[in-house]
Queue: 4 jobs
Job 1
Amino acid sequence: MNAKMDEVIEQAVIANRLDTITKEMGYALERSSRSPIFAEACDFACGICNGDGDLVSQINGIPILAAAGTFSVKEIIKKYPGQVEEGDVFIINDPYQGGNHLPDIGIITPLVVDGEVLFYCVSRAHHGDIGGSVAGSYNAKATEIFQEGLRIPPIKLVSQGRVINEVMDLITRNVRNPQMLQNDLWAQMGANNIGSVRLKELLNNYSPARIKETVGYLLDHAEKLTRLAIKGLPNGDYIGEEWVDDDGFQTNPIKIKVTVKVRAEEMTLDFDGTDSQVKGFVNTALVTSTTAAWIGALWALGPDIPRNSGAFRAIKVNMPKGSLVNPHDPAPVTLSTLTPASEIISAIFQALDTVAGDRLPAGFGRYCGPSFYGIDPRNQEFYVGFAFCALGSGGGIAGRDGYAYMAPLSNYGGVRAPNIEANEIQYPHLTLCHEMEMDSAGSGMWRGGPGIRYSLKFYGEPTNIVMFGDGMKIPPFGSVSGKSGSLNFAELTMEDGQRITMESKESDRSLPKGTVLTVITSGGGGWGDPLQRDPERVRQDVINGIISPSKARQDYGVVLEDSD
């Protein structure tokens, strides 16, 4: 075997080992955490950055969290030049200084070898409460970030192996469930520690110089693949628009506009023309908006490009200051990782539909569900819960129907719905209904995934509920003559039979014991002309209760006999 082949094999071994290490970090975090958000929903991401803060490897977790890890590390490098030591651990959540939104806390652990930082292990996870004026930290009526929770700039939580108790005390003193948050921070640190141990094992087999060389190759290779994919698109300017329902204060839709400029081997995502920042919490700081833009662009360019910082080099992003996608501090931003992150991705999809349509799905359902909190009557303990079972569905794409019961675009495939029985043990409610909703899927040659009907009966007294999300006014778009999906819907039914239709952004409301919440989530948009769908697929959809016979006739032109 020649030397060149040996080098290629060695690079592949190191690359796959790095990916395996990030996966092991994720498994450790899931299994050692206390919060259902970690252990059940897996609302977290893990990754490895090199000594310069470039993302090298990430798990297939929450995309909007994983790719953002590079921003956090670079903020630490900037703040602590020459001051990062073995045994240090950093913590960060500030959206205006390297974070996503306040509930997503990043833990960063450097690996120092002979005085040089070779890697940073990163875990970023959504915590159930980070303070602020509303439990759960989704404050639909916040007008500034200070009302959303505790801001943590990049600071040391552990110094040379010693926990800085004053920092931990300051953080836990400002949240409603301090023990759970502290335990989950330990879980994040433990996951990073496993990453560090495995990287040291890797260094036992390969020299630091060899590993650094391979990491440089991996980044350069991703850049090369990205530029080749961009080169495959026709040069030009491609414009896409998407809309957010509202900001919870005014009722007008908010525009996100992107011009995708393709020039030879480089792509620019220019969001000039996007509406100005708003009063409510649907603004998105630069870390989240840039990450969302990368997700949308790389999705359009193909699945074979490694999702690392090398791929990002060929994709330039312009987010005008003072706009919805790059607001001035201290604008509120808590909803940003759901909306408008998903709408940023959606706008890019629609811009590139004519040149990359076969690789892009129709519109996805937007998240719109509640958080709920109170005192659990079974143990008199405070709780905060989230309706992760109220997920929408994906859009159809060339060659297959949209996936049902998916997280929104920004979390694509990352968030898991918790087990119903476990959910009822954790929170004082009963699940009355959890099923697919008939006629909610956008019609198409490849239809969208059907939405979900989810009903809960609360028996805490009282239960406080907050609605946060979008998509009650603007449905998931249809693509290539496909039809749009359904809208989100939420309703409260009181014990006396009174029904209250909820809005997508409502601050905390106190519910009496016995109140039933019903959420009907969006079905995904359809792809392609519905009249081109295989009639046998239509028949099976009717049999399975996904569409009604009247829908089959109206949208697909398929008439079924009564015996079917």
Job 2
Amino acid sequence: MSDVADASPASTRTAEGRIEFAVAGVPGAPSQPFSYVNREKGTIRISWEAPKDDGGSPITKYVAKEVRSGRSISCRTTVCDFPGLQDATKYAFRVAAVNKVGTSAFSDQSKTAYADTPPGRVRSISMLSRGDHTITVGWKKPDSTTEIEEYLLTWLGNSVSLDGSTTSFVVPNLDNNRKYFFSVEARNSVGWSAVRQSEPFQSIGTPLAPTGLQVVDLQAGEQVTDVRATWSPTLPEGEAPTLYTVSYSVAGKAPAAVPGCSRIQSTACTHGGRTYDGSIYSYSVRAHNALNSSPASSAVNFEAVGKPRSWGAWQAFPTGSDNQARVTATAPDSRGKTSRAAILVGGQVVWEADVSEGVAINEVVSTPSNAMEYPVQLRMCNENAPTGCTVSADAKSIQTYGPLRTEHLNPVSAQVNGLQVTWTISGTSNGDAALLGVRTDNGAEEVIALDSRGSFSVTKAVTVSDYNTRTEIRVRLFDDAPTGRGEAQVSGQATTGNPPPPTVSIYKQRACNDGDSDTTNDCSNLGMLGCTNNRCGFMGINVTGARVHFGCQVTKSTANQNMWAYEGNMDNGETITDWVFDAGYIEVTCEAGQGGPNYFSVTAALNW
């Protein structure tokens, strides 16, 4: 650079320098705007993506323009609420980006949007009516910028979609004994409202008639008593609790509620002051919920007849004599003109007598047998029997017992298997579990405690030292608690079995060979058909397990060699015979003790 207008100025009139600068322009257009679900009335929230090119200068703001009216607003970010719009009106938008250089072109036009919002929550949910397993649920229409198109009603895993013009629904198939919460949502063209939930609602039906009604005389006094009624609870079929009313009628009169027993929660009721005048009372009970009452239960009658007092403490125990038990008690007040006591065994009267209150009863009575337990009870009756009777509540189970005698032990039986003898000992303990004393072959006595008070059967296994040996068992049946029952005895004998037969095998002990120096294998001198080679040979016999001397004989030979040859007075072990055989089939039978306890006959075979 120079300040002289000369093509070649002097160096004193020139200067050099550097200038740097950036070139900037307007940004590119943003993306097509899109709208969100609206949450504010008269407003549409729109958004877009920033332009890919900011023109070399940061974007400072955006301009959003409503296409139909041309109205625009300034937006700081890529999300912007456009206010001042009308419900149920279509709107479209375009957006431009602004930097310090200028404003970009406007974006493509957005899709049509509405300024409407989803509906508010329904304003209330109520139970319009209810019935047996049903509830009619109703609600008030919510605020909405547009028409409600649909409702969704839900309860306990169920749901139903309803037309937007509907504001009630009859819900079926409900459990009357359960509370339900109901939820309702509303939907318009924009979306779904928030959920509103109801208070708990419950359907209502009619309770079932109570069951299990029982009426008991409390025996509260001599001439006047209280009666107690109890029953099983029943479900209310509506809101709990179930309430009950107990009614009674007497002498054909109209039923009346028992005083103090109307709409009570308890399942028990006491009717006081009932005179023992022979009247028959008929009791029944009904169940109630908030709206409905059940039919009356099945009626139960009570005859107002005085019963004897309950029996006090009493005892029943066996005497130790066959089929005999002793019963001790004190007679209670019969509450009547007569007083008749009885002892029952197995439900049958075995003793009966007129007694006075407080008299001691001490009687020996019979049972059918000692073989089993029998229930024993006491009964007291007055002149109003059978109604005027009291039976002891605590029946006692008694099993009588008696002495132990020979007939209580059966003959012993034995099962023999070789050296083992299994004895079976059977009989009866005659009413009280006894003991068995068992002794075999003069050994020590083994005492066995029997579990059964009646019939028993036990086994005793004994291993005897030898075969064909006699063994003996002695058994006694006795008792040590109680003692003094006597003793039964039995004995038996058995003999162990025959020994098992021995094992016999035959084999070619050594081959014939007359051509060597060993003379023990020469066969020609025995005259055996001239057989002198190793095809022929001497037989060996091996026996184990024989208990006596025995003999062996050839009983079959295909070559008829040494047929019926016999070797006697043999012992266990290997025996080398002088029987020579050529090739063929041979059988040898060994036998001993003909007719004796150690008899055996065993045949062995060999293919030579």
Job 3
Amino acid sequence: MPALGQDTPESLLPPGFDDPAPTPAPAPGPAPAPTRVAPPGAPVDGVTLPADAEPGNAAEGVQEQVAIDLSRYELPEFARHSLDRVGAFAAGNAAFPADSFGGADGRFLQVLMRRMDAPIASRWASIVLRRALMSPLDTPAGVNGADFAADRAWALLRMGEANAARAVIDDVDTDNYTTWLYQVAMQAALANGDPAALCPIADKGAAAIAQRGWALAQAMCTGLAGKPNEAGQAFNRARSGSSPSDIDNLLAEKVLGTGAQGRRAVTIEWNPVRQLTAWRWGLATATGVEVPADLYQTAGPQVRYWQALAPNLDPVARAPAAELAATAGVFSNAGLVDLYSEIEQGGDSGDAQTVARDLRTAYTDGNVGNRIKALRTLWDAANTPRTRYARLILTARAAAWIPASDKVEDADRLIASMLSSGYEAAALEWRGVAKRGSEGWALLALADPGGASVAAGDVTGFAEGGSRRKAQMLAAGLAGLGKLSAGEAQNAAAALDVQIGGANAWTQAIDAAGQRGDAATVALLAGVGMQSLSWDYVSPEALFHIVAAMRAAGMGNYARMIAVEAVTRSA
């Protein structure tokens, strides 16, 4: 069965910068008894194993039986994980401090994670939230450690971060699983297209949750273990009472048949299917069954991000999903470049191959004019706001290799492309080229970590020469970064109708968390403040508080990139 990832072919193009880091979530189980995760109102205790049998009476000549704890051999004491701190390290990314939630009540954090509509609007806010939720963090007071890990993983899954969610779940020993964690663990296995990941917990999950999905999981795992007869019997029991043509049963049977001596020929017909669920996507992906493109429209956008991360899918099929995933922080510039390198190596014709060739030219052509022309071709081919931003991410490193020159006409887009993936140093080389009042100038004013203060007149002048919405975001970002004095900030806010002085429960919470230095709490509250797929619904006031709180909590780099993204992606 497919694992979390696989070795990628050596890229033909240079690597990129950062590591990869109300929409209903897809139902995790088959109808009519789906395993849709419905977060419980309170944490649920884990599954208790049966107690050992009473020993016999030695006085009556029956030898006393000594109970053997087999778990000590499966997982020795030194290898056990504590629920006091749960999380995983990501290669190349520094983890958040273990106490990043500070003294926040765990129940308050649980409510925030469960109610947050994800994915969120900002690529950079998503990146910082992923790194926060994935890091090994202390379990806050008032919650069970396994349940809190499940909440973190469930939020990551809804963001499209299937790999990160699985890493968090894997840091909890199966002996400590709760009902809620079993439910989220099934979602994570399906999101990764890896039903075999259910096998270590299938029996205990079925005992804790009386739903058909877990009974089918037991049958699938028996088949994968090379026991076709037992698997067939378990499968027949699991599907009892449902239609023989039920798509969920058929997909489970197809997984079952991939085991040794499975010998099951199952044909999947999608015509009657009206809804794509996590169960259907995960099992179809695991068995190489192509999901019709129109079915993706019936699921949340996170399923497209899962598709982008699935290593066993055809690169050409993954490419459009990967570009969308990049705008949500799930895919990096390096990941996109590697994916299109693989497409070019495949030699197939089509739109993706054309993009791959243009990308090679943008990175490797010896003539600067040809490289700029290739960049323009890639940018102009995008026809929606999200794909336009995705192309900026795709070309970020290539843009960073263009020498700064006042003879280049696309300075604004080059600067935006570099900053989309965090190439601050390369972008700042264009300070002497970007014209005052241009979008490139505005982006550099936000990105410069040591730049001078900006006058309110410059901000209002930017509004006169371009978009008022972009100018509002610029004012909010500069004020949050402390690049406008108090008086200048008030003047710019009044001129552009930005209410940066307003207060409510959310602004008070994120401001206080920033002042305390609780970085993970700030990241979570920032996600709560950006619950939209589009920047059109993120207010300048929210941006001000997010940027200011991140800066106060020691995340100035993220604060600058979020402010830059706000101006870049606003209409």
Job 4
Amino acid sequence: MPQVFSVMRISALLFSLCLSGSLVAGPVEDEIEKLSASFRGGDGGHSADARLDSAVLIPAFYAGRGHAPAWYGTTSGDQLFAELNRGLAQGFRPVDFNLAWLYELSDAARSGRPEDIAAFELVATDAAIKLIHHVFFGKVDPAAIDSDWNFSRPVIRQEPAAVLNEFINGAGFSALMARVDVDALQYRQLIDALEQYRDIANSGGWPSVPDQTVLKPGMTDPAVAVLRARLLREGAVREAAAITSVSAGAGGAAFYDAGLVEAVKAFQGRHGLDADGVVGPRSFLSLNRTAADRVNQLRLSLERARWLMRDLGDEFVLVNIAGARTYYVTSDDTIWSTRSVTGSAYRKTPVFRDEIRYMEFNPTWTVPASIFRNDKLPRIRKDPGYLARNNYTVVRSDDRSPVDAAAVNWAEDNPGVTLVQQPGPQNALGLVKFMFPNEHAVYLHDTNERGLFDRNERNMSSGCVRLEYPFEFASLLMESDPDWSLARMNAILESGKTTRIDLREPVPVLLTYWTAWVEDGSVHFREDPYDRDAAVLDALNR
């Protein structure tokens, strides 16, 4: 927790706590010391069905306070329960904090027996440590799931036990959690969405729509009545508003009327489907995902946000790979967004974080070796005019010296050459690219295939991210530069020359993977194009 610890004056604060009634502090402290010492010996606690995993921090925490109680009969104790419930609202489960056991021990501690108070204290401290860790770092270690993960987890630079003591003895536990919480609009919106979908799931969910018949506007079918009830049960604002009251004739609830068509189109739009009002196999698949499934997708998005949404500065760029959208977020939470094309399941866009450092207008494109072997080489063999028609030059792979295309043996598996596409309207990168040099050779860019943005499924690139409105994006990146203007950008583009423009300050860019998110007040879901959700959910539920 570097942000928290680096701004604190760490000191070991010792104090004595006056307990109510005839209880004497000494016996309680003795019991706490005895129990906390057992952690040093590797004893995982005295309950077979609950695991305490704070073996280092618990002894240090209580040693730093002379083994005096921290939670029993204190304001921080009340705050701990409140914060644990806030943790549940962020997608964690009661078992993550041994919450049921903690409530039992809290009740038992009211007896005033030192051993009961000590047992409550240690389990409460374990719960507090887990909550801090899970909220700040995330419960799941992404590097253990994805070998390509390159986000660095924050390094704890100060002693966490001392910091915990300082807050408990001073501002209180809730003040510490306020420092630890994720401060991002999307995170708060996901919490609200999770509450909504948990309420639906806990009250029975929604009906499953029979999928034997494709449902089309104007038809009458018993499944239409179920479809209507399904959409109303989810209660999404646009869908619910569009569903009109059912007239007495024309089939009643089973008639696929105009209002229901609009509701289905809105649903399809939120789920990345063709918004045509026709309910076919893919629409049925999304409709019949259970409310519990949607709860888990939202829990996963909250966990993924905890992995990366810290130290972002006033402005940052976020690419949602699964949703194929890119966002520019400013200090006042104003969000600019654009449709994007991201990597296919075969050539996945990697999840990582970097900083956009410069733009390049009228770029050349050096074709990556894998794309050359798998895509370009077969085309060249079939169509000798492909290179000239698409403005490619050929260079030797070893020294980048020019080569006459006619002199290359294209029949070889490895002709020893590299293709470089020259600037122009046919260039695969379009007219501008946004660079954050990285080991994956991934960046954001324009494209010469504008029609791809009209598709609802846009996970179809070779790994890089294509932007629908790259020049708006360029203007946002350069907004703080007084020397930049639309006229200057147009002049550069018209010159046709490859031109690098450095940003005044690097802008963080996060390439992440969310199958559930909130946008324009609506909750959006996707069908996990890279099949990544199951492994993360399994780890989150352990």
